[in-house]
Automatic annotation (TrEMBL):
One of the record's GO molecular function terms: NAD binding
One Pfam family it belongs to: 2-Hacid_dh
Lineage start: Bacteria, Bacillati, Actinomycetota, Actinomycetes, Actinopolysporales
Keyword line: NAD, Oxidoreductase
Segments forming domain D-isomer specific 2-hydroxyacid dehydrogenase NAD-binding: 109-282
Organism: Haloactinomyces albus
Protein name listed in UniProt: Phosphoglycerate dehydrogenase-like enzyme
Family assignment from sequence similarity: Belongs to the D-isomer specific 2-hydroxyacid dehydrogenase family.
Length: 326
C-alpha cells in the first residue's frame, strides 16, 4: 500500500503540549528545535512553526527542498517572512481567529484599568494606604483602533459595547464600516490622532507600519490620551514613547509587545507609574495551545484532501488577503 501521509516538521522551543502528538495520526512528524531544523527539513512537505518567535526558518531555508506549506502558530508572520520565502511557491498560513476575542478583552481591561485607576489602587494596597480618588468614565470616550483585521474588529466590538465611540485606521479610508463606522487611511493618521482618548495598535508589522508611532505621531496625541499596543513592539519607536511619557505629552501606555522581549530590566518603562506592562500574553487564555493545534490539524486535513488551507497569507503584504489590517 502506498504511504500517502505527508511529512510534517514541527519547529518548537524545546517543549510542546501533549496534544501535539495527535498530529502523528495523520502525518509523519519530525520534531525539531532551531538547531535541528536544517536536518529535519529535507523531504518535508509541511512546516508547523510552533515556536512562532523563531527566525530560524530563513537560515534553514536551503534545506527545505520539498516544502509546500508553512503554518505559523500566531497571527503575525513578520518574524517568518524573508525574501526567498516571499518569492517562492510555498504557501504560508497563520492562526487567525484564535486570538481575536481574548485580545479584545485585554484591550477593554486596560482601558478600564486606566479609567478606574486600578493600577494605582494596587500600588496603594501594597502599602496599606487608603487614598480616595475620583476616576473617569469610559462611556462617550473616543478610541481609534489602528488595524482593521479580525483582531481590530473584535476590539471595536468590545469597546463599542462598553459605550465608547470607536473608529478605525486602515490601508484605505471608508465610511459606514459595519464595525468602525469611519475608517481613516493610515496615510492620514497624524491628522486624526488628536481627536482620540485611546489609540489601540492591532496592526501587523510591515514595512509600512514599522515605527508608525514615533515622536511626530506622539506629538499629535491629546495629553490625556493613552496608547495601547497589542500588535508588535516595532509599531512604536520605544525611545520616542519613553520621552513622550516622561514629558507628559501623553497620559499613559499599556504595552503587551516590545522591540526586545523579554523587556530588559534596564528599560525605564518598568518604573513608570502610568505604564502597564504585560509579557506578550494578551491573546493567551486557558486552552489557547490546544486551540492552535486544532486549527493546524483541521488545516492539515484540508491539505490531505487536496483543498486549499484556510488563512492563506499574502506574502507581499504580510497578512491574510481579504482581512485588511492597515
Amino acid at each position: 500500500m502506498t504511504d500517502t501521509k505527508p511529512t510534517v516538521v514541527i519547529l518548537h522551543d524545546g517543549t510542546y503540549p501533549l496534544a501535539m502528538l495527535g498530529i502523528n495520526d495523520i502525518a509523519h512528524v519530525r520534531y525539531a528545535t532551531e538547531d535541528e531544523l536544517p536536518q529535519a527539513l529535507p523531504g518535508a512537505d509541511v512546516l508547523f512553526v510552533w515556536h512562532f518567535l523563531s527566525e530560524a526558518v530563513a537560515e534553514a531555508w536551503p534545506a527545505a527542498t520539498d516544502l509546500r506549506w508553512i503554518h505559523v502558530a500566531s497571527a503575525g508572520v513578520d518574524r517568518l517572512l524573508f525574501d526567498e520565502l516571499r518569492h517562492s511557491g510555498v504557501v504560508v498560513t497563520n492562526s487567525r481567529g484564535i486570538f481575536d476575542r481574548p485580545m479584545a478583552e485585554y484591550v477593554l481591561a486596560t482601558v478600564l484599568a486606566f479609567a478606574k485607576d486600578l493600577h494605582t489602587s494596587i500600588r496603594l494596597q501594597d502599602g496599606k494606604h487608603w487614598q480616595h480618588r475620583e476616576t473617569e468614565r469610559i462611556e462617550g470616550t473616543a478610541a481609534l483602533v489602528v488595524g482593521t483585521g479580525p483582531i481590530g474588529r473584535a476590539i471595536a466590538a468590545q469597546l463599542s459595547a462598553a459605550g465608547m465611540s470607536v473608529s478605525g485606521a486602515g490601508r484605505l479610508a471608508r465610511a459606514d464600516d459595519p464595525d468602525f463606522g469611519d475608517v481613516h487611511a493610515s496615510d492620514d493618521l497624524h491628522g486624526v490622532l488628536g481627536t482620540f482618548d485611546y489609540v489601540i495598535l492591532a496592526a501587523p508589522l510591515t514595512e509600512q507600519t514599522r515605527g508608525l508611532i514615533d515622536a511626530t505621531a506622539l506629538a499629535r496625541f491629546k495629553p490625556t490620551a493613552r496608547l495601547i499596543n497589542v500588535g508588535r513592539g516595532s509599531l512604536v519607536v520605544q525611545e520616542d514613547l519613553v520621552e513622550a511619557l516622561t514629558a507628559g505629552r501623553i497620559a499613559g501606555a499599556a504595552l503587551d509587545v516590545f522591540d526586545i522581549e523579554p523587556l530588559p530590566e534596564t528599560s525605564p518603562l518598568w518604573d513608570m507609574s502610568n505604564v502597564l506592562i504585560s509579557p506578550h500574553m494578551s491573546g493567551d487564555t486557558i486552552g489557547w495551545t490546544e486551540d492552535l493545534i486544532t486549527l493546524f490539524t483541521t488545516n492539515l486535513r484540508r491539505y490531505l484532501h487536496g483543498n486549499d488551507p484556510a488563512n492563506v497569507v499574502d506574502k507581499q503584504r504580510g497578512y491574510v488577503s481579504g482581512s485588511e489590517s492597515t
